[in-house]
């Protein structure tokens, strides 16, 4: 597209886009759709060099109303035809418009069950001491002090067992191909 053509298209847009948008909004009652139609209409004007060539005088701002009227009529006709084509399309007839986006489908709980199974299997491969600390912490919701008091070991030992239990669990899950 040459500079002259670009200038002509810009002036066409400046002169007609706003009124064309209002026209299409009245036809469709949908601002987003109207924006798409105006954009497609101007794109088709860009692809139609005869329209731009015939509208040179309008773009320069100095001439006949006949050229201006023909460009305006062409743009409105194209926009109207685009709206009619969309109304007639099968897509338009088969789609149901809604104000809100559809909700996400309920997740299948299969992944959760499989993950729980893998973790339970990996926990059986830990030592009894490591498994006790992890199970009481994660599944029992107990604090380090509560676990230490129940098992009769110092808090530092609970933390150490917890640390090494997590490392062993991670290694076990990696060997099973669950994590990297």
UniProtKB/TrEMBL annotation:
CDD domains assigned to the protein according to its UniProt record, in alphabetical order: Sigma70_r4
This protein's record includes keyword DNA-binding: yes
Keywords in alphabetical order: DNA-binding, Sigma factor, Transcription, Transcription regulation
Domain of life assignment: Bacteria
Pfam families named in the record: Sigma70_r2, Sigma70_r4
GO biological process, one term: DNA-templated transcription initiation
Record-linked InterPro entries: RNA_pol_sigma-70-like, RNA_pol_sigma-70_dom, RNA_pol_sigma70_r2, RNA_pol_sigma70_r4, RNA_pol_sigma_r2, RNA_pol_sigma_r3/r4-like, WH-like_DNA-bd_sf
One Gene Ontology molecular-function label: sigma factor activity
Membrane keyword on record: no
Domain RNA polymerase sigma-70 region: 13-92, 122-170
Family: Belongs to the sigma-70 factor family. ECF subfamily.
PANTHER family, A to Z: ECF RNA POLYMERASE SIGMA FACTOR SIGL (PTHR43133:SF52), RNA POLYMERASE ECF-TYPE SIGMA FACTO (PTHR43133)
Name this polypeptide is given: RNA polymerase sigma factor
Organism: Subtercola lobariae
